[in-house]
Write a structure and sequence with these properties.
It contains 13 helices and 7 strands. The chain has 293 residues and is of the alpha/beta class. The chain is globular, with a radius of gyration of 22 Å.
Length: 293
């Protein structure tokens, strides 16, 4: 039996707990997700290091999964555009069963190994692409089919699973094992196994965006202000980074098409918007390099 499917030795009478005790047991068990990710940190760092040059050269992030794992991948891909202005066409998600499986289980979709390979090939995946494959079991046929295609096409493959020695992690170029053990509700890998996967996805994509100059200091300076909340955040970030008052920050943002990077360079270098854009282009998008004397 897979470790993630095994009955937990703890909380055998979970169904008899009072609500406060039940909630405490569920919350406390999630700590195992953080510990599993900490143990996997060297493997995560290696994967990020390998992915960077491909993405810098124009490659795409392609997430592949089934069920809860697939939905987590789709979520990470969707968040990269508003958070970091990462082009939508360069963050793609493949979910067993297609888009409708995002909201309802599609019977048997995860068992279709052939379809996993077909879906990767349909994207025209190639040597610059980074394919992140997720499966708590590490043996989901759809995901393994996608892995085979990714390897054959020369993509960089990163396999993430919650069982040691899984086919997914052993078959990928970079395997990340999140050994979260048995679930407090036995077999429900949407619990700490899923939490660990979410942490890893956040870590990988955020680390990549930092190294691709989407962050200045620890400020999210390449966001896409697509709503009122994000417009206010852009103003606040510009004020924080430059020390400018709200009026000056807004003027710089408006002149620069509400690009926080451009506004920061405009204000700190005391240059026009066009010159700020040129400085950033020459610095490969790095605010820090653009501000250098």
């Amino acid at each position: 039996m897979l470790i993630t499917e095994a009955p937990s030795a703890q909380h055998a009478d979970l169904d008899r707990y009072a609500v406060p005790e039940l909630v405490a047991a569920l919350v406390d068990d999630q700590a195992g997700a953080v510990e599993a990710v900490r143990r996997a940190a060297p493997a995560i760092a290696a994967a990020v290091g390998a992915a960077l040059p491909r993405l810098a050269a124009g490659g795409r992030l392609i997430y592949v999964g089934a069920g809860s794992s697939g939905r987590l991948g789709a979520l990470d891909s969707a968040e990269l555009y508003p958070t970091f202005s990462w082009p939508r066409e360069r963050a793609l998600a493949l979910l067993a069963g297609g888009k409708r499986a995002m909201f309802a289980a599609v019977e048997g979709a995860e068992d279709d190994r052939v379809q996993g390979g077909l879906d990767v090939r349909a994207l025209g995946a190639g040597a610059l692409d980074v394919v992140i494959l997720l499966a708590a079991s590490g043996a989901t046929p759809y995901v393994l089919g996608a892995l085979e295609a990714a390897r054959a096409l020369g993509c960089l493959s990163i396999g993430i699973a919650n069982n040691p020695g899984a086919p997914l992690t052993s078959g990928a170029e970079f395997g990340i094992t999140l050994d979260t053990g048995a679930e407090v509700i036995s077999g429900s890998t949407r619990l700490k196994a899923g939490t660990a996967q979410k942490i890893v996805l956040n870590t990988i994509s955020s680390a990549l965006m930092v190294r691709l100059h989407k962050v200045y200091g620890n400020l999210m300076v390449d966001l896409k202000p697509t709503n009122a909340k994000l417009i206010l955040r852009a103003v606040a970030l510009t004020m924080h980074a430059t020390g400018a008052d709200e009026g000056a920050a807004r003027r710089a943002l408006e002149e620069g098409g509400f690009q926080v990077k451009v506004a920061i360079v405009t204000l700190l270098k005391h240059v026009k918007t066009d010159q700020a854009r040129r400085l950033l282009a020459d610095a490969n998008g790095s605010v820090r390099a653009a501000l250098a004397p």
